[in-house]
Design goal:
single chain, 5 helices
């Protein structure tokens, strides 16, 4: 009975306007122990200072953009204020490579974000990471088989 009530409410909700996407580096602490690129989507509007304070708990924000219409349609059925997606540097396929992580993030955005904006996002993420990790060196990995 209760589920039907909430389904009806979801169908009547208006499509929110001017929702944002926050790009940054996840904060490492007691809960999250591995570094990751953090992408947080707003699903609902609330007071500006409350939004920024909530996002600041989860990540060091380096870039903010507006959601596209396709991304806005995903927010309608959501029951949470934010949706977060992470790309962990420690993943086996990335092997600690910053450039591979930035490429995976760029590939995930290619259907919704222009190439120029994806380059800006990658540059902002790269500069923040290198600022906080001055001794970082890209790991040597074989990208393709050469004969």
């Amino acid at each position: 009975m209760l589920d039907n009530k909430h389904k009806a409410e979801l169908g009547q909700r208006k499509q929110p306007k001017n929702l944002r996407v926050f790009y940054g580096w996840a904060k490492v602490g007691k809960i999250r122990k591995k570094e990751a690129i953090s992408v947080i989507f707003e699903n609902e509007k609330m007071r500006e200072e409350r939004t920024l304070r909530a996002v600041a708990k989860y990540q060091h924000t380096v870039y903010v953009r507006q959601q596209t219409d396709a991304e806005l349609s995903d927010a309608i059925g959501s029951t949470r204020m934010f949706s977060e997606y992470s790309i962990f540097l420690a993943e086996k396929r990335l092997q600690g490579s910053l450039e591979l992580a930035l490429k995976v993030n760029s590939d995930a955005d290619k259907n919704h974000v222009s190439a120029d904006e994806r380059i800006k996002i990658a540059d902002a993420l790269r500069s923040h990471f290198l600022e906080n990790h001055p001794d970082y060196k890209e790991p040597i990995t074989q990208q393709e088989i050469e004969f």
